[in-house]
Write a structure and sequence with these properties.
By secondary structure, the chain is of the alpha/beta class. It contains 21 helices and 16 strands.
């Protein structure tokens, strides 16, 4: 049995759903496969089709041992020939060889739910040979016997209190697997530790072509371009590298012109691929150069900074700065793939890590209370869960940009903190880093919301506490001229009819857009 788009891959990408009967493997699996544009396979249904009889009949005729033999054979066949989202029977991985096989060939998500929830979901299903007799007693026995086994899987999801749509979203967060719709044909986003060494295979399985130009800055290139290049050569790509000096000051049209020249020297064609390996500056510049070379060539975003991972790597917004302000030139050009390797965060300076965490706090404020509360637990808690922070922040942004891919309305919520923040960056001559500036901007804009009578009581205090807990600033530096800040805000691309345009927080989980405020009113709140 299959469900999906039958998008054949040269290299398998498998997501195995496992757990006790009633945990939601089949229903969740179908929706997850649809969201990821992958095929869906139900191992028990495949066994029944091959045997031409039900699972209950197989148990009656051949016993559990006979069923397990069939199950093992079918699992090996499915893994070898049919890839995608695969729902497994509740005991399929008790066999160590089966468990080793799926661990090599994909990622396992173990679904769980309390006893009462499982029984309620199964109350109309009668063909459950391992639950014959007193169903409650037999289910409890199975759960107790398999407790340590289910606990051995690191990726777990309790489905008890989730409707199907919520369960699918949480499954994608735990798996670090998303597919963004709404800009062209859509593109995959994968969060996977160690994925840099497999980047060549990831490009091959999606049909991306060479020659490939890997664009990076000199800091990131020194660390990771060799690893990426080796993977590309291993998969028979013609590969070229381009490096430019690191830093926001190099996010200019002059750098873009250098990239265009390099693309031409590499003899890139319309179907050739650009890889952006680095932080947000690299992604913006390489993506913009790809958008405009030969009227648009495919590109792959491989973010290596926390800031790029949680914010800039998805959405297809590319561009460069002008002396008058940030991102005043650019284009929407969606990548063909976003590949996030959290292991690159291990080499990130502390200041750059904090930069990204500021954007993650923002996404928590917009639509993820779990994420925001994680930051309220302090710096140690945040540092211990960096991969989860990346996955949760990406889920928020993806949800928003799918509904508003070209920033015509809803997507403006992502500008929270940025109207003031961009001005702080520019006036400080970028001595205040982007994340620090966004943190300052979020607090200033929360105070503006409070001043206008919009913000929930205590919101500013919770935001300040969360930001200070991860060592981010919350006040505009004293040395920055306030008139210059307002002038910089007036150059912001979000201005409307000469007024400053803000997205303002109302409460945790709610940010409203489209507030047009006079500059003099903002001036008084900058301290």
């Amino acid at each position: 049995m299959f469900f999906g788009w039958n998008r054949r891959r040269e290299v398998p990408e498998n997501f195995f759903l496992y757990g006790p009967s009633g945990s939601g493997k089949s229903s969740l699996g179908k929706e997850l496969a649809q969201n990821l544009k992958l095929d869906f396979h139900d191992l028990d249904a495949e066994i029944e089709t091959r045997a031409d009889k039900s699972i209950a009949t197989i148990f009656a005729d051949e016993g559990e041992s006979g069923f397990r033999i069939r199950e093992k054979q079918m699992l090996q066949e499915v893994v070898a020939t049919r890839h995608g989202v695969i729902a497994l029977g509740g005991g399929a991985l008790l066999d160590p060889e089966n468990k080793a096989l799926v661990s090599r060939e994909g990622v396992v998500l173990c679904l769980t739910a309390p006893l009462e929830t499982l029984l309620e979901r199964l109350h109309q299903e009668h063909d459950r040979p391992l639950l014959e007799g007193d169903r409650r007693e037999e289910m409890l026995r199975l759960l107790e016997a398999r407790s340590d086994h289910y606990d051995s899987f690191p990726r777990r999801l309790d489905t008890a209190d989730l409707i199907l749509e919520e369960a699918v979203r949480e499954a994608q967060i735990v798996l670090g697997a998303f597919r963004i719709q709404g800009m062209g044909l859509g593109y995959d986003v994968r969060v996977k530790p160690g994925s840099l060494k497999d980047i060549g295979a990831s490009l091959r399985e999606r049909g991306l072509l060479g020659p490939i130009v890997v664009v990076s800055d000199k800091n990131v290139g020194r660390l990771y371009s060799g690893r990426v290049g080796a993977s590309l050569r291993k998969t028979n790509y013609e590969e070229h590298g381009m490096l430019f000096p690191a830093g926001e000051v190099n996010k200019t049209i002059e750098t873009v012109m250098q990239l265009w020249d390099g693309f031409a020297r590499a003899r890139m064609e319309r179907k050739s691929t650009v890889i952006a390996l680095g932080g947000g500056v690299v992604g913006d510049l390489a993506g913009f150069a790809a958008a405009t070379f030969l009227r648009g060539v495919p590109w792959v975003n491989v973010p290596t900074s926390m800031l790029a991972m949680v914010d800039a790597c998805v959405g297809g917004k590319t561009g460069a700065n002008l002396p008058q302000g940030k991102n005043l030139i650019g284009a929407f050009h969606a990548p063909s793939l976003v590949l996030v390797d959290p292991e690159t965060l291990s080499t990130l300076p502390e200041i750059e890590l904090r930069n990204g965490l500021a954007e993650a706090v923002k996404t928590g404020m917009i639509d993820d209370l779990v994420l925001f509360e994680l930051f309220e637990s302090g710096q140690d808690a945040a540092h211990s869960k960096l991969e989860e922070i990346v996955r949760r922040a990406l889920a928020v942004k993806i949800k928003i940009i799918e509904q508003d891919p070209y920033e015509s309305g809803l997507r403006e919520v992502l500008n929270l903190g940025h109207t003031v923040g961009h001005a702080v960056e520019v006036v400080s001559d970028f001595k205040v880093h982007h994340g620090e500036a966004v943190a300052i901007g979020m607090v200033a804009e929360a105070r503006l919301s409070q001043h206008l009578g919009l913000a929930e009581e205590g919101l500013v205090e919770r935001l300040v506490s969360a930001l200070q807990g991860i060592n981010l600033p919350v006040e505009v530096p004293e040395g920055l001229d306030r008139d210059s800040l307002v002038a910089a805000m007036k150059m912001d691309k979000k201005r409307a009819m000469g007024k400053l345009r803000f997205s303002l927080p109302i409460r945790l989980g709610e940010v409203k857009t489209g507030f047009e405020i006079d500059a003099t009113e903002v001036m008084g709140l900058l301290g």
